[in-house]
Write a sequence for this structure.
């Protein structure tokens, strides 16, 4: 864990609201110099606190309106390979190594049911995948992209 002071926290909060906020605007709002903001953001990036700056794109607007969750059971001796192959599938947007009944949980985004079926066939054909359970997301109630600091 990286030690963050109050200024770091405020900078991160502003950037999570809008990563395009100019450093001059952040400096003005926080009552410090633009150079201070530049140095702090550079340090936060170097320390891995800030992983990158992204546009939050609507999946529906770009034709990826079908979301599904796939829970995967795997052969433990082939699990590392299974995770590697799952991570390489373009439609897999999130992949988690989990505890409990399943070994991994993935979030899939596709254009439609036929593409989802192709992805499920691809997942099922991975050597070491024992079984899957798929849930189609009907509505997204909450999907938070910022971290409370």
């Amino acid at each position: 864990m990286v030690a963050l002071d109050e200024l770091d926290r405020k900078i991160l909060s502003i950037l999570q609201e809008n990563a395009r906020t100019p450093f001059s605007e952040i400096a003005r709002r926080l009552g410090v110099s633009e150079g201070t903001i530049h140095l702090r953001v550079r340090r936060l990036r170097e320390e891995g606190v800030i992983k990158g700056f992204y546009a939050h794109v609507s999946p529906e607007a770009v034709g990826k309106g079908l979301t599904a969750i796939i829970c995967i059971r795997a052969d433990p001796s082939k699990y590392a390979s299974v995770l590697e192959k799952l991570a390489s599938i373009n439609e897999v947007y999130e992949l988690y190594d989990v505890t409990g009944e399943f070994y991994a949980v993935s979030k899939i985004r596709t254009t439609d049911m036929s593409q989802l079926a192709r992805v499920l066939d691809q997942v099922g054909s991975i050597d070491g995948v024992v079984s899957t359970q798929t849930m189609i997301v009907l509505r997204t109630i909450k999907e938070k992209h910022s971290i409370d600091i």
Summary: The CA atoms of residues 24 and 131 lie 53 Å apart. The chain has two domains: 6-46, 60-136. DSSP finds five helices and four strands in the chain. Residues 6-46 form a domain with the Arc Repressor Mutant, subunit A fold (CATH 1.10.10.10).
